[in-house]
Amino acid sequence: MANLKITVPDMGDFKDVEVIEVLVKEGQTINKNDSIITLESDKSSVEVPSTHSGKIVKISVSVGDKINKSDLILTLESGEEKEEIKKEKPKESKVAAPVLTKEITTKTLISQVSQSGKGSASPKVRKFARELGADVSLVSGTQRSGRVSEDDIKNYIRSQVTVSQGKVEKKETLKYVEEYPHKEFGEISIKEIPRVKRLSGPHLVRSWTEIPHVTQHEEIDITEMEQFRSSLYDYYTGEKIKVTPLAFIAKALVSALKEFPNFNASIDMVSNKITYKRYFHIGFAVDTPHGLMVPKIRNVDQMSIKEIGENLKKTSNLCRELKIDKKEFFGGSMTISSLGGIGGTYFTPIINPPEVAILGVGKNFDRLTKIKGKVITRKILPISLSYDHRIIDGAEGAKFCVYLGKCLGKDFAFKLAV
Ligand code: CAO
Questions:
Q1: Distance 319 CA to ligand 1 centre (A)
Q2: Which helix (H) or strand (E) holds 141?
Q3: Which position among 95, 96, 190, 313 has the lowest Cβ density within 10 Å, counted as fewest Cβ atoms?
Q4: Residue 60 burial (CB < 10 Å; 0-12/13-18/19+)?
Q5: Whose CA is nearest to atom 25 of ligand 1?
């Protein structure tokens, strides 16, 4: 047995690279090629494998250290010494380290990382897994040497919960690792997760993990729209018509969908096809005591503002009474999630696949604005548009918001009603 020094390999142009993880402990026995530390450069993070097997006597680096070629990482008590030294003679008894060049940095190291199959992953992938509650050590990696990728994590999560035709089949429960049970900190109570949440949960996870969301926030001046809305009276009875601003927003959304067909589409990344819908079935997120439901209101383009308002009321009541037909949750163009009746401004709505965009609506608020030297109050509607970046570009997202603003703005709002 002799002590071997494991040093930082040649990293090409990389200098002062930060240690972001120490993957081993003193006293631990490791095999050749087991990852010992993770280094992070500007572009990538890489794990440095041990060049020998043995028991770790001393670790000479800590997280946060900036290290360079030939710096000592750890000292190993190794039985390999005789063999290695014999082989390397007549060279000096220096440990041969893998060479890292700029081009092959990650690949070279990854190819040398442990063959253990499950659980070998970069810090980024580990963080991703942690956020989704997946235990990396249970995931089989498909990359070289069994390394786990983000896609492997997604597939793993998918394999845990299979959703088929609205039926959730739980294969294995995802467990969040708790360091201490909640009850150690005080009184608790435990309830079943409501059925609607159990059904919608996997759908939300799928959307959040598979769709590259971009959310654009915008403020729309709806002063004139609000004046118009509050001035609506029934032609025959003379009674005031109470219509939610959401009906106007739905109508404006239909106009925007006509102008930007990419938002009224679905994509299939397997067949590489885009389906453009010629109908305008708008989904509305409905808050119910049983959980969130998203029924569609069909052919909104053919409805008056008043009809949209009435349909919204009728449909949300059916949801709350659990009398809605399941079919009404499918076949939508785009969804509106309105928190306007509750409060709040901006948020990140999660796309409801196979739709490719969702409009979040906050509560309108007053803003003092100086116009032509006079300070006046304007009504501002905060909106948050999330879209699938695979089909919708940022510029198109911004144009969509601007267009919506025009539809709900001073010269156009009244047109929505006719
Ligand atoms: N700004 C200010 N006030 C607004 C508003 C807005 N953007 N939108 C609606 N309001 C007002 C309405 O005018 C109405 O006021 P009055 O009672 O004075 O007439 C009041 O808020 C009632 O709103 P409402 O939310 O009950 O009704 P709605 O028709 O606007 O919305 C529905 C219907 C089904 C969308 C709503 O009831 C609901 O469930 N919202 C929650 C959606 C949700 O949970 N989204 C989050 C999904 S992500 O988890």
A1: 15
A2: none
A3: 190
A4: middle
A5: 341
The residue whose CB lies within 8 Å of the most ligand 1 atoms, and thus the one to mutate among 338, 351, 358, is 338
Ligand 1 center to residue 341 CA distance, Å? 3
243 CA to middle of ligand 1, Å? 11
- E strands within 26-134? 29-30, 35-40, 45-49, 54-59, 66-67, 72-78
Residue-level pLDDT, tens digit, the chain, 418 residues: 788 999 988 776 677 888 878 889 999 999 888 889 888 765 556 778 888 899 999 999 998 888 988 899 999 998 765 444 444 333 333 333 332 323 223 333 333 333 334 567 777 787 777 777 777 777 877 776 677 888 888 877 776 654 444 444 444 455 667 778 899 999 999 999 888 888 899 999 999 999 999 999 999 999 999 999 998 888 788 888 889 999 999 999 999 999 999 999 999 998 999 999 999 999 999 999 988 999 999 999 999 999 999 999 999 999 999 899 989 999 999 999 999 999 999 999 999 999 999 999 999 999 999 989 999 999 999 999 999 999 999 999 999 999 999 999 976 655 665 5
Distance CA(203)–CA(334), nearest Å, equals: 16
Three-state secondary structure of 375-396: EEEEEEEEEEEEEECCCCCHHH
d(CA 304, CA 109): 63
